[in-house]
Amino acid sequence: MQRRAAAAVLAAASLLLASGCSSGDGGTPGADRSTSPGRTAPGSSSSGKTAEATPPAKGSVKVVRTVAQGLKTPWGLAPLPDGDLLVTSRDDGTITRIDEKTGKKTELGSVPGVSAAGEGGLLGIALSPSYASDHMIYAYFTTASDNRIARLLHEEHKPSGEQLGAPDTVFKGIPKGFIHNGGRIAFGPDNMLYAGTGESGNRGLAQDKKSLGGKILRMTPEGEPAPGNPFGDSVVYSYGHRNVQGLAWDDKQRLFAAEFGQDTWDELNAIKPGGNYGWPDAEGRSGDAKYRDPIAQWHTAEASPSGIAYAEGSLWMAGLRGQRLWRVPLKGTEASAAPQAFLKGTYGRLRTVVPAGDGKLWVTTSETDGRGTPGKGDDRILELQVT
Fold first, then answer.
1. CA atoms of 49 and 46, how far apart (whole Å)
2. For the Glucose/Sorbosone dehydrogenase domain, which residue ranges apply (predicted)?
3. Parent domain of 350
């Protein structure tokens, strides 16, 4: 099997963290923040308008039920073909199957080589586009030396705890840090594998197109640069990102991404191949033609976004420090109305959002990640009905 070893990260640029740190991060700007929220400031992009139908400016969210509870540091979530859910534990390095009807947990096993510290550990998860025949699970995780993506055979016939085959590394060399490890992976409508990475606290990596840090990557399932990538024989798809943890496509196969700002603006971006999203030279809307402006932005206390999903004509974005679910109605690649907040403070920090079909979403909480305040039942997976 082909494996792609990533290009070496270039020499150090300045170690991040300028003055003006957010006090809610334990002195770490841009970490998954947990202090109380502030105020909203939606933005818009300059991309072309379309003739598409516009969803209502106001939507709704109804909590249908708690699917599962008592989860430890849940991060990635992937639905199986039969409706059950796979969830990763960032700190334990395990993958667990959740019976979608009863909430029963069955541990598949541990991913070897996971080194959990800070924001690193076992993060995103995705099923192979050919899962029905190959039963492959893809996982993004932090090791002692880097962040990498591996695929593991799901051997359902084996006992609990022994259902994961040996990891086959398809991509490695993504910069790791105590913070800003990115971690979201997803197969796109083109069956290519996309990964959101962070700049690992080394801000200069985001503008360096030879580095894998602060990027969205696009590759084949074997870890090779995907055909049509903007920079030739490179997996880099877009750059100038700080810490991408949300990836989703709308019904027209357009890619969107959510990322953490530092102290001022968190972003929701419409992603274009080869686009430069500005970090560290721009945070939020800059109006500089060199950079692509976000379609919406928030003060960090209101968002600190992680996962996003598309449903009912809108993007739905989980807020960690913001402790709420944001709805961003779309017209083309623009926000058609101001973002609308739901579940404010009701379930604490929200990490991952996944479409569940029929106008429903699965949402995971993130209270046990070291920055929350866990209560009875945390962490949990919720089922929501949205419009």
1. 9
2. 71-371
3. 48-386
Contacts of 19 (CB under 8 A, 6+ apart): none
Q: What is the CATH number of the domain that holds 113?
A: 2.120.10.30
Q: How far apart are CA 313 and CA 232, in angstroms?
A: 34
Distances (CA, A) of 85 to 14, 65, 104: 41, 15, 10
| Phi, psi for residue 113 in degrees, rounded to 5 | 90, -5
The answer to the question of residue 315 being in a domain is yes
Contact predicate 372/354, CB 8 Å: no
Length of the chain in terms of residues written: 387
Is residue 29 in some structural domain?
A: no
- Name, in order, each residue with C-beta under 8 angstroms of 102's C-beta and a sequence gap of 6 or more: none
Structure-block tokens of residue 221 = 């399932």
Q: Into how many domains does the chain fold? A: 1
- Cis before residue 134, ω within 30 degrees of 0? no
Two tokens at 215? 């990027």
In a domain, 30, yes or no: no
pLDDT tens sequence across 302-344: 999 999 999 999 999 999 999 999 999 999 999 999 999 999 9
Asked if residue 16 belongs to a domain, the reply is no
